[in-house]
Amino acid sequence: MLCVATVLLLTSGPAAARDTLRCGSKIVNTGITMDEVRKFCGEPTSIRVEEVPVRSGNRVTGTTEMHYWTYRRGNSQKPATLLFDKDTLISITYK
User: Fold this and answer.
1) What is the pTM (predicted TM-score) of this model?
2) What is the rounded distance in angstroms from the CA atom of residue 23 to the CA atom of residue 37?
3) Distance CA 76, CA 84 (A)
4) Could you report the per-residue pLDDT of 40-78, keeping only the tens digit for each?
5) Which SS3 state, helix, strand or coil, does residue 5 take?
């Protein structure tokens, strides 16, 4: 999953990266599924899906879907962007 590592490196730039998100009384952690996030946080404000190549060395061996969900949490808080590889939450960033 070199692709996932590359995406994580790209998303860990100047934005504040954390591995949790509070939704009401629930804490969302990386490693959970899209359905679990929806259950805890409701529908995201926006969704973007990208199909990205999966590489083994210099060779493309297939593709995977990366899902970006954004939750806007009020005027005083930065939006949270959740990154899923297929159905698994792999990253939470605040911009």
Assistant:
1) 0.76
2) 9
3) 25
4) 999 999 999 999 999 999 999 999 999 999 999 777 688
5) helix
Structural domain span for residue 28 = 2-94
Burial (0-12, 13-18, 19+ Cβ within 10 Å), 40: middle
Please give the tally of structural domains in the chain.
1
Phi, psi of 13 (to 5 degrees): -65, -130
**What are the angstrom distances between the C-alpha of 11 and each of 6, 83, 90?**
9, 9, 11
DSSP state of 43: S
The string of pLDDT tens digits covering residues 3-20 is 444 444 444 444 555 789
Decide the pairing of beta strands 26-29 and 46-56: unpaired
The C-alpha angle 83, 36, 80, rounded to 5 degrees, equals 35
